[in-house]
From TrEMBL:
It comes from Methanohalobium evestigatum (strain ATCC BAA-1072 / DSM 3721 / NBRC 107634 / OCM 161 / Z-7303). GO terms for molecular function: 3-isopropylmalate dehydrogenase activity; isocitrate dehydrogenase (NAD+) activity; magnesium ion binding; NAD binding. PROSITE patterns: IDH_IMDH. This is 3-isopropylmalate dehydrogenase. Its cofactor is Mg(2+); Mn(2+).
Amino acid sequence: MKLAVVEGDGIGKEVIPEAVKVLDALSLPIEKVPVEIGYGKWKKTGYAITDEDIETLKNCDCILFGAVTTPPDPEYKSVLLTIRKELDMYANIRPVKPLAGITGVTGKSDFNYVIVRENTEGLYSGIEEIHDDVAYTTRVVSRKGSKRIAEYACKLAKMRNNNVTIVHKSNVMKSDKLFLDVCQQTAESGDVNYSDTLVDAMAYYLITYPEKYDVVVTTNLFGDILSDMSAAHIGSMGLMPSANIGEEHAFFEPVHGSAPDIAGEKIANPVAAILSIKMLLQWYGYNNEASLVERSVNYTLNKGIKTPDLGGEYTTEELGQAVIDSINSQVETVPE
Ligand code: NAD
Ligand code: IPM
Ligand code: MN
């Protein structure tokens, strides 16, 4: 496997090295290709990402990505969105599952759902018109885009509890009526149980009754917001991994950003990045290794080895090393 490794900016440079060390501890035949992308590169060279970088990413089997900073500069185009679009990675998969020894701010521990976020259109279309007194962003919802994400969600539901919740705002936006219709038809023909909920109410239900959900499918921006909110169930932004999947490419990254407020302090939680490695291994078919990584993360956290976001005093590297130690000792009796 040829894996592109993009650390990016801020804490991306701190958490990705830990994730890579975890991968190395598994001694798999994986060739790593470092790629420099992001705001740091932009400041140095005037380019945050080049055509050559995109080619390199396309030529790898998959990508491990840290986080990038988006400066408030109107000339700056988000590299993350460029990559998702260029590589047509239409499904953003964000599992929300408790970890051992950690109770999130909601106090809930019986949830296990996955947000399936449409990743290429919606309000992220990039079609904008900016004038002095008014600015427009075009929200794009296509039948094709809705169908492929609905199919992904239904396929995933079949492997889980066969239940899909379609989240939308069709009472206000006709674009979401199309999304809803296509998702309903797809679930109906795929024999998947489904219901639908307006996104504002969904924010309330999801935080109050997370145990009721299995697969949550939604449009781009709603998925973005609901996933950060869901990190409150798990316990920190630093605990939530994700996968961006397309027909030809796959890209694994923590859900969190470059966290400029803590960057450089060596206290960022590396677990989201390490669990992104777990998703990568699973995607590639290294299922035993994926489960070993997950068990080792749970074992480590359950022992109380935590970074300050979880109330602990361990550093990024210490937590990363503890996960590696646990992998090396091939722990068997740890909580799922
Ligand atoms: P953020 O996710 O970077 O941080 C939100 C809060 O969570 C901060 O208080 C931060 O300290 C905390 N946090 C995040 N990750 C953590 C970790 N691993 N360990 C401990 N605490 C953690 O969101 P933001 O502050 O809104 O955005 C900062 C920058 O990151 C912006 O430029 C934004 O555009 C960018 N961003 C990038 C990505 C990405 O590259 N995937 C994702 C989100 C935001
Ligand atoms: C995420 C991030 C990105 C998004 C930003 C950085 C463009 O918040 O991956 O959730 O909005 O998709
Ligand atoms: Mn986000």
